[in-house]
């Protein structure tokens, strides 16, 4: 199955160029064209989700905003493929169950949404997805945030050990402590390892300019018991321009039996 991470750029009221009203059809068109089984979105508030869902008839979603009326990290899933068994949202702070809480010099509240799914055709085959958006200013917040996510993954695995995906906008580059923690401490697979594009052409945040040269900040990781193949940066441009200032990233995966 294919999974996608996609920062859709939050709707900024009054914005003229690259306004959400000109982009949301493009967001749904990209998703429908790629037809991922799972999409981890970032910077999506409830009104934006409603806009996108107008054209995503095969999907449902789960997740909570970081504050009331604010953006979040919802997980979209194909309702013809999966049953949602459990889900939750926690805050990347010293008080992860407190709505809107902030720690470690973060500039905004940051959250991680997780969900547990089973296949409709194979109900005994289950897996989890974690979707996050780490802080863009504070390195301490990014490092402590990813460690908290790792602790949550470990806690859930103690209850029931399942294959899992970790995706999102990490606001950090592959050589950073944040990304090294994912690969070395959590021992996760980075899907860029199976990407055919050259390392210098893996830019994912392009600021609506369409550039390709540079390092990614949007990532998908998997646990070791997930087979990965054919990862791609999607650079689709629409009539009104790019649907977001980030390119979505996709990967084909297979849960090992």
Give an account of the 3D structure.
With 257 residues, the chain is an alpha+beta fold. It has a single domain, classed as Deoxyribonuclease I, Chain A, CATH 3.60.10.10. 19% of the residues lie in helices and 29% in strands. It has four helices and twelve strands; from the N terminus they run βαβαβββββαβαββββ. The protein has a six-stranded mixed beta sheet with strand order 3-4-2-1-12-11, with no helix packed on it. It has a six-stranded mixed beta sheet with strand order 5-6-7-8-10-9, with no helix packed on it. Helix 1 packs across helix 2 and helix 3 packs parallel to helix 4. It is globular and about 50 Å long.
Tags for this model:
4 helices, six-stranded mixed beta sheet, Deoxyribonuclease I, Chain A, about 260 residues, about 20% helix, alpha+beta
Question: Helix and strand layout, with pairings?
Answer:
Layout: E1 2-7, H1 24-34, E2 38-42, H2 46-53, E3 59-62, E4 75-78, E5 82-91, E6 111-119, E7 126-133, H3 139-159, E8 164-169, H4 177-185, E9 189-190, E10 218-222, E11 226-233, E12 249-255
Parallel strand pairs: 1-2, 7-8
Antiparallel strand pairs: 1-12, 2-4, 3-4, 5-6, 6-7, 8-10, 9-10, 11-12
Helix pairs in contact: 1-2, 3-4
